Amino acid sequence: MKFIFKKEAYVFIGLFSLLLTSCLQEQKTAYLNKEEHKNEILQKTFSNELLLTINYLDSLSKSENAKDLEKHYLQARLHFKKAEPVLAFVDSENYKFLNQPNILKIEEEDATDIKINNPTGFQVLEEEIFTDAPGIKTITDHAIKTKSRLELIEKNLNFNYIKPYHVLWMIRDQIIRTALTGITGFDSPVLEHSLSEGQITYSALKAYLDIYKDEFNDQTLYKAWEQAIEKALNALTGEFNSFNRYAFIKNNTHNNLKLWNKTVSDWKVKFPFTKAINNDATSLFSKNTFNLNHFSDYNDSLTEVKINLGKKLFFETELSASKTISCATCHIPEKGYSDGLTISKGVTRNSPTLLYAGLQKGFFYDNRSGSLEGQIVSVINNENEFHSDLEAFENTIKHNTWYVETFKTTFNDSINQEHIRHAIASFIRSLAPFNSKFDNNINDLDNTLTTSEINGFNLFTGKAKCTTCHFAPLFNGTVPTTFKETEMELIGVPKTNDSINVEIDDDLGRYDLFHTPERKHFFKTTTVRNVAKTAPYMHNGVFNTLEEVLDFYNKGGGAGLGIALENQTLPPDALNLTSSEIKDIIAFLNSLTDEKENTPSSI
Fold first, then answer.
1. What does the alpha-carbon distance between residue 192 and residue 464 come to, in Å, rounded to a whole number?
2. Which residues form the domain of 472?
3. 181 and 198: one domain?
């Protein structure tokens, strides 16, 4: 009898477990089916926008008069912008292809693998259509190429993998994209439809977010998004040149990021990794904005011990062959980690700042190194700089008891060349304080910016088109929102500051690496943060003041001065900035001076 009871009990328990497992499986299946259904709606909505874009591009390719060309372009662009939040996230490379600037795209893997591609896509179409004499054949060719790429994308859509965290990343990327490249005129260079296109993308965000409305546990948070988007739509009005970008970022973008972080918590989302922007960032201009590991080959976080070790190595003169120079010889803290010389001693170019140097993807003026660690090797080996090598570095350090103990503590290992490079690079990566007057004000920590400084920022990011190369918030050539590439430009820097007998500087820049003719005189776009401390300016130190720099740009760069440059990437047209506007831009640039390094104490 006892046996029978046990047997019946086991049967009951087994049946209950089976039923429970079945119920849980059904719940999981129902959740997955619900998630798949939302993804299907997202894919269908996105696909519809692509198909409409394709249809208008098809009409564009068959048009032969200016009125029809303009009409069909604007319709195609409208639907492309509606698709942008999703397209830029799920297929960033094709998005870049379709929305690239109208300049040659050159890829140089090595001397045997150089690709030179003519641009195509919407920016090219805009420049070709909205001109006094549109070239029908050229426009038709670009319309067909653009349409074909979109058709390929549309035929290969598969959103089955989309998870809630993908949706949240997509939303945040578009908020950042609108702020950093949308409202600046980066991708609407002729029409300057940046504000109306910002409205289109924010409206699209509302539609995409609505698909995932039931992900919100707190529906008041969803209502907050509706209100925030409506506020942004109302703000994105007016005329391009007079638009207050400072107010938009401070009052909309940053508030959107705070709301986004609340949504992450509400959706109970866990991100599998961190992209260029930290997952908890609530500002674009903060020390906590960027994930430093994104810009490094190393995935370990910075520590105070590692930074201080790197700082001591940075100032160490015993490591040079002459025992008289250190990294700080050419990168002086009081001069914004530059040296104040036209051309630095022992080299052929001006010494750039190291502040924010860790937040870029290319190093040296010609981008020849892909990491800080690689740059350090070149400097050490240069016979006109350290005139040493890493082996000699290593041997010198091994004879110093403090270094031996500190390396062991920091890296749990003995001294080696990799750790030496990484320690110095870690110190340089720490030099990104984001505590300038401008940063403190846009982060609402202070309220001290003058009208001139705010107007200068709005000019810098608007009429003057400075941020189409010096992208905020780093104000260097590292391109938002992926921050995967640091661009080089040909702006036509002259040999001397002589406005009458103007000649291009002899330095061929990037060309010297691979001898690609189309790369002559190309140089990396460096940051203008702390520019008040880093005179003289340009790779050859040709300009002594910011007034001279602004005058050069205002005239259209080298081409505007009369230098014949086939591949100048800076528009050759005069900016027509007034003297008052130039003063305002300089006032803004001065507001980018950091208050202090904000790094660990020296040893």
1. 12
2. 437-590
3. yes
